[in-house]
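Predict the assembly for these two chains.
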Amino acid sequence: MQTRLHARNGVIGEGVKFERIRRVTGYLVGTLDRFNNGKRAEERDRVKHMHV
Amino acid sequence: MIRFIVKRDGRKVSFNEDKISNAIRKALISAHPDDKSTSQYEEDLVEKFTRQVIQEIEKKNLSEPSVENTQDIIEKVLIKEGMAAEAKNFILYRQNRTNIRTYNTDLTKIFRDLTSKSTADMDLKRENANIDANAPMGLMLRFGSEGSKDYVKRYVLRPEHSIAHSRGDIHIHDLDFYMLTINCCQISLKGLFERGFSTGHGFLREPQSIQSAAALCCIAIQSNQNDQHGGQSIPLFEYDLAPYVAISYSKHLCKVMNVCLRNDDYDLTEIKDLCKDLYKKNNTCLSEDSSEQIRNKVLEFLDKYKPGCDHQEDVKYIMDEAFKLTERETYQSMEALIHNLNSMQSRAGAQVPFSSINYGTGTTIEQRMIMKNVLMATDAGLGGGETPIFPVQIFKVKDGINTKPGDPNYDLFELACKVSAKRLFPNFSFLDAPYNIQYYKEGHPETEVAVMGCRTRVFSNYYDKTKEIIPGRGNLSFTTINLPRLAIDAHGSISKFYESLDKMVYMVFDQLMERFNLIAKKQVLNYPFLMGQGVWLDSDKLNPEDKIEDVIKHGSMSVGFIGLAECLVALVGKHHGESKEAYELGYNIIKHMRELTDKKTVESGLNFTLFSTPAEGLSGRFVKIDKKLYGEIKGVTDRDYYTNSFHVPVYYDISAAEKIKIEGPFHALCNAGAISYVEMDGDLTKNIKAFQDVILYMKDCGVGYGSINHPVDRCPVCNYVGVIGDVCPRCGRRDGEGVSIERLRKLGVGCICTG
């Protein structure tokens, strides 16, 4: 594949954050930055239900 | 002795007892508005209450009281003296005055903040995560939205509804659209496509390939979204699109024949017609039976145009190649559909349409081809490998069709689980749940439950029982009740809680009816696509000038709720995940609410339903106000959000099975829609079996709609998709770090923009 990010001094991606897709109430969101404060807090507090 | 009073603007003026008497007198008169005079008895009361107010002020040692706290005291005295109606009117009067006073300041402040503060600093700008309020059109939408909300709150809502909303007793959703439109719609593409449709500047004929059908599907979603404030769903995705796979097939077939015959001019219309007839008769062109007849026809034509040769091998090649080309086109169509729905803009460019597609039960080869390819395109992701945010995909799970090995679509269920384990979609809806199966008629996919992406569903139709179908209907509007507050105010008394809950629900009924009456007066021409193109049920029977009142009665009005968990903690100290007693109480509360909406449905003849509110913007709003009012109450107001609907709190450690078992029964009660989530960790794509088991367990526990949440991360530098902890497993960088061009090249990532 090709990346469209610009290289600076032979290095690519400085300052570029990982995308973290989450679903809190219904729709997916491509980045946590767009969540409102309530949803951010809810995402942070979640525990996994791993013991099936 | 009180000598001065401090006015709102800070000026000190001499204290005048008469002003207090006047306020009280007005409050008393307000209880009998027809007679503006006061009786002697009332005058005595005025004097008595005025004395009490002054004593109260003196007791508080307020030598210079403010207008605001004097009014607070008047309010309290009236309540204490049992003047309920008078006190209520006084509160309304104050609110009204505040409204007029703050008319300019509130809105101006919001507008100033919208333009000067960044999204990161302003919660309001992140109310809905899928609207980018940094961009000009998103911001423009916010300006309009805030202006409209302000106007509706001040001048349109009944004062008690407006106050209840502002104080956080209830949340009236989509207030900005209060006088404009209705929420959402389950769109049938079949009628739209067969009739052809117009989006305003030209007529679109029926599509003649799966490629154009998929493109028009997006246009329909986009156009309809502009007429409504909520989302758009295609409930019969594979059924609506399958005919166009067949048309594409017939075209590919003829093209390959032309190539084989080395001649473009031969007339092959008969082949196309045969395909059309077969599709009409068998509902498929690709079944063995249909294929056999097509094969014979192809052979007949080959013999006709190239006599004297053995065409057996050619026929096989032509049939196989046409199939392959059709499959390829279907994949590309689905890929384009997903790309379009993540990039095409609606609402003046502020957002992509909120779209959902439902599928899973169609068993013809065409229908299966659509489902397989939409899943594969989802799996592949967008152009840079990103996970598609839209459309929300819902896989319909149905016994006998896709739940067990040997079922015709079991392979698609497995594929759906595999894709969901990587991409979070599809979600799963369960047709066999008792409350869904009651409407199900085999061979009538329009009776299969479908949902909007947010979880809304509209199924039962008390208004017109002959039309208990999914397509062409949707939710009109909904209002959410703050359950935790009612519980806090009840101070542990269950009966007091129920009493105030009833009052609140009835108030919401009134408010929903008022909203309905406002919208009912609108005309078909106000909704050029939704009503003008006959998308909404029965709107095709109306003329442009007709009122929409009768047809929107097919829609639903819903009472929503939030924070059952916090409500229970406030009432009995525990939530329904940790105590059986709390569970029973919680179940009864929601059951009671459902009984109220059912009763209201019968009384009004309209579809009132109970909703487990998604709370996109609401998750933090109530609790913020309640924290201010009541302080931090452990397990109730001590977090930044109230727990969604009837969910077991996200912070509570519980097994997946237990959570599903607890939440399942609530799905039957929430007939306006509900969803259950299970949180899982790690790379689920390596354990599809466990994923599948959880989904099927949901089905067994009566869940109507569910999904599994798991982290899906992506590194935009090397394009790794999966779980990323602190370090990207592929390129080894940390968040925000750079990677050298050489290293990326070794990983097979080229760089277009060097320098």
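The radius of gyration of chain B is 31 Å. Chain B is about 50% helix and 10% strand.
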